[in-house]
Amino acid sequence: MIRLAIFADIHGKFLLPFKLVNHYQNLTGKKIDYIIQCGDMGAFPNKNTMDKATLRHAQNDPDELGFLRQFCQKNREIEKFLNGLNLNMLCVRGNHEDHLFLDNLEKQAELNNQTHFSIDCYQKVWVMRTGVPIILDNGNEKISLIGIGRIGDRKGRKDSQFIQEYEYQALKKLFKSKQDFDILITHDKPSESIRGYGSVEIAETLNNIAFSYHFYGHTGEPFNNELYDNGITQSVKIKELEFNQEGKLSDGCMIILEKSGDNISIEKVPLKDIIGFMKNTWQYM
């Protein structure tokens, strides 16, 4: 069996998924093999490159600066914790990242024929290249996935937060390969003809490749699990990893996926019932 913990929209709280996974493992005795994250990491190594929304939120929430403060220069306590946990987090890009920073790292990864690339000083946080297949292997079981970072746009804009042409071309190559994969990880949702938002590229991917599950964040909607229009893929909206007005996390922020043979299943972790993981205390857990 292989087991994944899946999150979305951490917005700078890079340490929180690792701490939640550590708590889950200690509580249940079930080992997590990989952490998956659905974009809006808040990967800004320099405060000068932060977008206006991130800077605005950071005025009231220092967690927005978590990457800069905790994952760009080594902290011995954090390094010891992460090395002991011995897990990597694989992410896709969101629309709130330093894309120039990520672009430079991705170009080097492409030259080295890497499917994903490390972005932090501990080499625990990795970003998937859009449209490049990844096989995760724990020695007993494998799971295949595709990532699509950034968000869709129907106005022809080329800004860095929108899916780029080279990424779309990588996806089109996959369509021609006629391969199937276990899961699709995206930041945005597939486009909807009625309301006119979402990503056309993600919708086209779901209509050309048979995935068992698709996970995404971005929209601000609550957790939802429904069969996609292709009649094959379970489309799962992950609740953003954020604290509510009571300072608590909501159910649907942390999903556990298990694969054994051809069987894949998911479960919600009841985060609202976990004592200690509050807005002002989680750093000490």
UniProtKB/TrEMBL annotation:
Origin superkingdom: Bacteria
Residue ranges annotated for the Calcineurin-like phosphoesterase domain, each copy included: 2-220
Segments passing through the bilayer: none
InterPro entries xrefs: Calcineurin-like_PHP, Metallo-depent_PP-like
Name the record gives this protein: Metallophosphoesterase
Organism per entry: Moraxella nasicaprae
